[in-house]
Amino acid sequence: MADVIQVKELARSYRMGSxxxxxxxxxxxxxxxxxMVAIMGPSGSGKSTLLNLxxxxxxxxxxxxxxxxxxxxxxxxxxxxxxxxxxxxxxxQNYNLLPQLTALENVELPLIYRGLRAGxxxxxxxxxxxxxxxxxxxxxxxxxxxxxxxxxxxIARALAGAPDVILADEPTGNLDTASGEEVLRxxxxxxxxxxxxxxxxxxxxxxxHCGRILRLRDGVQIGDEALSEPLRSKSxxxxxxx
Length: 242
What we know:
Blueprint: E1 3-16, E2 19-32, E3 36-40, H1 47-54, E4 62-67, E5 70-71, H2 77-87, E6 88-91, H3 103-112, H4 118-131, H5 147-160, E7 165-169, H6 177-192, E8 197-200, H7 204-207, E9 212-217, E10 220-226
Parallel strand pairs: 3-8, 3-9, 6-7, 7-8
Antiparallel strand pairs: 1-2, 1-4, 4-5, 9-10
Helix pairs in contact: 3-4, 3-5, 4-5, 5-6
């Protein structure tokens, strides 16, 4: 299995006055194409710092980060923005949808920055909404959608650009049990189709839907557990109103 992500002695520290505060301390791991991996740890463990580095939102102060074989550790801000837009799909706990735009327009938005023509943007956005079962809600605005539907729009937005990696930050954190189960089932389907998914969560049950769990504490990687039998979401037809 080829690696889509490899980190070597990855570190990030922040200066607070005259004090250097380490947030991530020499983390090492590889993630293969098509893996579904959970990143877990208590508050202050370094999860958010690691997510920002993997998402090319920040640069490390030590070590290396290879994305699809390319060392992106020392790229400029402009270069990181291009990589972020072309190779990484983000799914957020709070959905981050623009309220004045329809579901379809929200999914199209990142594609505008790629310079795609309107027809191509529309085709890709409709395909992504179809993949999450929301084509019949494409003209609804966020306030006209349930929380589960809004998160599915967020997943469609991440999918539309065909990224190398999907990074999901507590994607079920604001959802009720049924909607959370539906969102997890979508991630399982993406994983089954060959997508690479990294899911940050504090919930052990959510993490056990992945094939592997990376654990952090105090900026140090303390575990890398492969799950022989991941949990699976309840089967059944997708509910549009979930």
